[in-house]
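Late entry, evening session. Most of the bench is empty. Finally got around to the prediction I had been postponing all week. Sequence below, unchanged from the version circulated by S.P.
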Amino acid sequence: MGDSMLQIFGKAFVPETIFNKPIRSTLRKYLLSAGYNDVPYSLFGLLFLITAALTYGIFLPLVYPLLAGKFFILVFLLSFLSWALIQISIVALIIFSITFFLNIKIYKRIKAIEANLADFLVFVSTNLKGGLSLEESLWAAIRPEFGLLAEEMTIVSKRVMTGNDLAESLNEFITKYDSPSLQRNFMLIIGEVESGGKIVAVIDKVIESLKRTRALKEEMSAATVSYMIFIGAVVVVISPVLFALSFQLLQIIIGFTQSLGSSSTGSGMMNLPISFDNAIDVNNFKKFSVMAITTISICSSIIISIIEKGDIKAGLKYIPAFTFSSIIVYLLSMLILGGVFGGLI
């Protein structure tokens, strides 16, 4: 009963269409590409209740005291606007986080399918040359080691066995994933099936093209290893050490100006026109250094991903490793350089 109420409540926030554009069908296709067969409307309803509770926890202690004592209508309008703004911000943050997670999952699924496609088509081609039909060849080529591709081909084969058209079943499979390589190669096969041509020759050419593309990508990745090593060294070692060295230099300059200022005051001389004592806070410099190192790590991960894989999403795995490593090197450099330059401060 509770789940059905949440499902009805969640469906109220997902309309069928908006400006004549389908919403629920598009959402279903998007979730199918991520591996979810059903749209979790009950989860949408639950998330709305959670965001309402979070909004209440933020609004009551932080916003409402600022509105107390004002005119009633003004309090009502400002309360409504602030509540809506807070909840919309929380909902947007949650939607962004969920979408980010699903996009990464879809990306991994696409790469898993593309990695096994050439080997799968080799079995299909062998079965066709052995006298089997294309439908039988697809079913016989399914192997557990093909992982997600085997699951998708099992679904395609079962649809064909239950009376669906092969070209239609394959087209439904490739439209599920936003992969130019997958769509281009299977469209060639589907076109040859519909025209009744030599399907074996087309599949062999597709296999050759996939293997050549894979070899070219591996060669390009190997040729750019030196660039990736250089960028990694800059992120993990050079930039943290330079920030730590800059911090020690800042402390030396501040200590030097303070010594000159106190000596000039004690001797009755004029004070120096420049002082770093109140102009720069060393703690703020530490915070700036950590934020700068984190930003450099994120940007460098994206650059390495583009160089190595040609895609930004592939570099997300480097962000935590680069960030934590560079911050640890920065802290260690602070300790070591602090001991080296400690006598000068």
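Two things to note before I forget:
The beta strands are 17-18, 21-22.
The chain has a mean pLDDT of 82.
Will write this up properly tomorrow.
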